[in-house]
From TrEMBL:
GO molecular function list: metal ion binding
Superkingdom, natural source: Eukaryota
Lineage: Eukaryota, Viridiplantae, Streptophyta, Embryophyta, Tracheophyta
Domain HMA: 2-65
Organism: Eruca vesicaria subsp. sativa (Garden rocket)
PROSITE patterns xref list: HMA_2
Protein name per its UniProtKB record: HMA domain-containing protein
Keyword Metal-binding: yes
Amino acid sequence: MSQTVVLKVAMPCEGCVGAVKRVLGKMQGVESFDVDLKEQKVTVKGNVEPEAVLQTVSKTGKKTSFWGADDAETAKP
């Protein structure tokens, strides 16, 4: 089942955007994604589990949480 996952990702530069795009491009089930440097927002569409997307993007070393969630609760270093 296709769904949309929206994450808040701390990306201070274009290099960070590239790292996020690289890991999402390799992820199974991802149909499309958009990385917004200005908004620090990553939107992923596809047959994916939200937690799996969060874990995958967290592997870049960027602080990652679900968009609109309490940072203290879901933030991954």
